[in-house]
Every structure is written in C-alpha cells, then in structure tokens.
Amino acid sequence: AIALGHPIGCTGTRITVTLLHEMLKRKSKCGLATLCVSGGMGMALALENIA
Question: Which end of the chain lies in a sparser environment, N or C, as judged by fewer CB atoms within 10 Å?
Fold first, then answer.
C-alpha cells in the first residue's frame, strides 16, 4: 500500500477500491479485503458483485 502511495489513514479505502476494480476486471462474484485500522486493530470486508 505504501508503494502505491496514500494519505495516512486511507489504506483501507485504497485496498477496497483496488479490490472493486479487480473484481470488475476479472468478472469476480466475491472479493475479500483485510484492512488495518489505527492502533493495531483490523477488520475484514467481504464484497459481492450482484450486477
């Protein structure tokens, strides 16, 4: 994430948007992103393409 560049605190957004673009490009039905949140916390985000 740092190599692509992003403002501090926007890593999760950048990973999510990259996942969305890859899902569209590959015509994927589902995608999973793991996101780091400030202070060492984390979360996972599951996306489904219903289009």
Answer: C
